[in-house]
Amino acid sequence: MKLKQSMCAAGLLLALLGNAHAQKAVTIGYATPDLSSSFWVSMTYGVEDEAKKLGVKLVKLNAGGDANVSTQISQIQDLSESKVDAMVVGATNGEAVRGAVEHAIGAGIPVVGLSSLPASTKLASTVGANHYEMGRLQAQCLGDAMAGKGEVAMISQQQGQSWADQRRQGFLDTLKARYPNIKVVAESRNAITRNDAINLVDNWLQRFPDLGGIYNAVDDSAAGALIAVKGAQRRGQVKISASNLSQTAQQMIKSGDLVCTSAQQIVTQGREALRQAVAAASHKPVQRDVQAPSVLISAQNLATVDLSLLSAPASYRP
């Protein structure tokens, strides 16, 4: 599905909703894994702002972290019991929430998977980015910054997160194909927060004195990695790359502390997921798979990027 075509259909969807609103307000349930994450803050902005534009009611529930799987399962069950018209779900763990999601679908509630997808073939629509491509772009950038040689470590985020798994694979495949002289010497799939990354990278810098680069599946861990690198007085020696473009990541790029980030159109995805959910709730045609394009951002092109498609306004609070 071409994103541009879907965007053009948004106006038609709004018109189609007019009669539906006169009869019954559409209520969309939104289950998000972690609103302490800059990524999900931007995603939620897209969902909320589009809900306002379409005049639908949004019930927003935050699991409070990717590790809080049981909390999210309960929240999805609550949305089912409240008989929302459709759901948008960004999963804490795709396999773990599958049962709750498929129960909702069985009860006649269409579910749209957003970015971190529930592991179900019964979703009405999936909306996300090409995460493998994001990993590939980051490997290309970090590999070039390291002059094609040296030791790299990876903060890959939790196993079971489809986006994290795909970014990781894109990064590894690209290193193997294009940068055979770069060796992955360490990887963590348990360091989730910024503080986790600080402690982890402190340890890595002691264990691997020749470490030359750190891959980050998200920009929050990149910020933690930078704190550790600065503390070890190795700023500039250890190259740091990331994915996503939060306000923090933008500042890190401007200061030269982040060599690049492979960014996705996060706000666009949130808007698109809300549109697809409303279409499904209104028994209108939906697009089964929508992918927003990714872009590699560095100090050279940051000023030319349309940030409104990628991240929430600095003033936004979910």
UniProtKB/TrEMBL annotation:
Molecular function terms from GO: carbohydrate binding
Database matches in InterPro entries: Peripla_BP_I, SBP_2_dom
Keyword Transcription regulation listed: no
Localization in the cell: Cell envelope
CDD domains reported in the protein's UniProt record: PBP1_TorT-like
Signal sequence region: 1-22
Keywords per UniProt: Signal
One GO term describing the cellular component: cell envelope
Periplasmic binding protein domain ranges (all copies): 28-284
Gene3D superfamilies (UniProt xref): 3.40.50.2300
Short name of any one Pfam family annotated for the protein: Peripla_BP_4
Superkingdom in the source lineage: Bacteria
Similarity comment: family membership: Belongs to the bacterial solute-binding protein 2 family.
Protein name from the UniProt record: Sugar ABC transporter substrate-binding protein
Source species taxonomy: Bacteria, Pseudomonadati, Pseudomonadota, Betaproteobacteria, Burkholderiales
